[in-house]
Amino acid sequence: MIKNAKKRVFKSGAIRNNTIGKFDYEGFVNPAVENSFARYMHRHRKMEDGTYRDADDWQKGIPIEEIIKSMLRHVCDIHLLHRGYEVIDEKGIKVDFEDCLNAVKFGVNAYILYLIKQRKSNVVKRGE
To answer: Which among 111, 101, 14 is positioned nearest to 61, based on CA atoms?
Structure first.
């Protein structure tokens, strides 16, 4: 591929505009991290009664007070784990470092979605 300031020319002869200023979603995320998060989210779809909630159930809206309380619990667990402590949850299960990080990632996602929904407009801008 030949790049110049105005366009990209591929070996096939196809021509496209340059990518300057466009979001690079492929570069912004790592598939191994996203897989870890998806595995975490899938495990937490199962409810105590054995049923499963929809994967996008959280997008219906969680009260912001619940989001921050949960996120801070997980941040405290991360801090303890980072300092070398063993953390046991309320069910007596040893807390996993990666799960805690994914739980915080979930909280961040939920909080961001809450803020987006609070905007007056649902316009989402992306790179040109």
So the answer is: 111
Domain boundaries, the chain: 27-118
Phi, psi angles (nearest 5°) of residue 51: -80, 165
Q: With 0.90 as the threshold, say if the pTM is over it.
A: no
Q: How far is CA 107 from CA 28, 34, 61, 97, in A?
A: 19, 15, 12, 15
Q: What CA–CA distance (Å, rounded) separates 51 from 97?
A: 26
Phi, psi angles (nearest 5°) of residue 25: -55, -40
User: How confident is the model over 85-94, as pLDDT tens digits?
Assistant: 999 999 999 9
In the block, tokens 């912004």 appear at 28
Whole-angstrom distance, CA of residue 40 vs CA of residue 61: 19
